[in-house]
């Protein structure tokens, strides 16, 4: 008796799904409401935490970098960076005085409904509050040529993606000017091939030298359109340091570039050493038959990022 | 590579004995200035007007600190990238500036002025801003408060740790150090 009941339940659900009725089996989540206030509160909290609290993946990379560095000056810089992270966490002080442009990535579930305000306004409200209440530096100008400070670090740079589901995922990624200024993009010829890509990445790091605060994290976008390539270089920086690229081909390329970048000898703060980078991360995308775009977005050792799912 | 403890203002003989790679702990006053303040200072010099800070023997620290939280003398205060100040630095060196603190290499015109007038460029650890703020015991805005983080401040420092990155003899730890560790 019990046996037949268990068998008949999925069959009934399947039949309902075929008729277009929503059941648990069709895996369409119910529409959820997420309040704008909750988004603002979360962004404010993440902005402060990201600036004062280095994530464990970065700390781990700094510790292993200290062990691998053979330059005495370089080793001492690693010691200072680890001591600095400790002070920042304990005293709720910013890791770096450049608390950055507030770059916010948002994955919005297509079944999530923001209520009580606009998403962008909620994010900016969070940035305004976080940067004010957290005593973070206001480094944003309202216009690139008129150059007047907005005094609350808004607007944030917001990158929104629509994804399946009914949740909303936020990444708050404060990005300093020193490392951002050293980023580059090139539209290579297909004939330049993989060697051209490697050369562009290593040359970009070489030109950047001490300026982006090495040891750096190198985000590389390959392929896509012009703007997609640059965006992928930035998204590459979101990946956990120490994690492997899911594609073996790109994992090998990342490892080779990691070695080549460290062989530049730039070292911690550019004063010479064996550790110039903590990680090279690649995001590749399909591209046009005529194109081979490559972009390099450099992050300083204070690779600040915090996430939350609402 | 030697290690020194030095007091500001620097004397000509202090600058003369420093070589790229030396470690120095600085004591006394440092003056802060970034891009916007540098532009103002250079304009004042060109107009023959008085500066809001003394330059003779002094050190300028390229920093825009975070806002001062309650109970602390200053917020986080690490160095910013120095090459942005390269267009302004030679004139300040000509008018008596003896030291600069920042991060990243300096250009040819700054090196030339350092050699000609006797000045030294120090590197502090970029991104070690909370640690460095512990060596600052007092901070006072002395000019351009409207510039916020970019205002000119007079900092009192105790054992502020820097490395001589480029000396007055053309010595350059960026070039020498990177060559040593390149493969």
Structure in a nutshell:
Chain A is α/β, with parallel strands linked by helices and 310 residues long. Chain A is built from nine helices and ten strands.
Could you give the order of strands across the largest sheet of chain A?
4-2-5-10
Measured by DSSP, the beta-strand proportion of chain B falls in: 25-35%
Rounded to an integer, what's the Rg of chain A over CA atoms? Answer: 23 Å
Task: Please outline the major beta sheet of chain B.
Answer: 5 strands, mixed, barrel
Short key terms for the protein model shown above:
heterodimer, A: 310 residues, alpha/beta, four-stranded mixed β-sheet, 10 strands, 41% helix, globular, disordered N terminus, B: 183 residues, fumarase
Describe what this molecule looks like in 3D.
The complex is a heterodimer of chains A (310) and B (183). In chain A, 41% of the residues lie in helices and 21% in strands. With 310 residues, chain A is of the alpha/beta class. Chain A has a domain at 177-303. Chain A has a four-stranded mixed beta sheet with strand order 4-2-5-10. Chain A has a four-stranded mixed beta sheet with strand order 6-9-7-8. In chain A, helix 2 (36-52) packs parallel to helix 5 and helix 3 runs antiparallel to helix 4 (72-91). The longest helix of chain A is centred in the N-terminal third of the chain and has 20 residues, at 72-91. Chain A is globular, with a radius of gyration of 23 Å. Chain A starts with a helix and ends with a strand. With 183 residues, chain B is an alpha/beta fold. Chain B has one domain (3-178): Fe-S hydro-lyase, tartrate dehydratase beta-type, catalytic domain (fumarase, Alpha-Beta Barrel). In chain B, 26% of the residues lie in helices and 27% in strands. Chain B has six helices and seven strands, in the order E-H-E-H-E-H-E-H-E-H-E-E-H. In chain B, strands 2-3-4-5-7 form a five-stranded mixed β-barrel. The longest helix of chain B is centred in the N-terminal third of the chain and has 12 residues, at 35-46. Chain B starts with a strand and ends with a helix. The model of chain B has no long low-confidence stretch (mean pLDDT 97). The interface between A and B is large, with 46 and 44 residues.
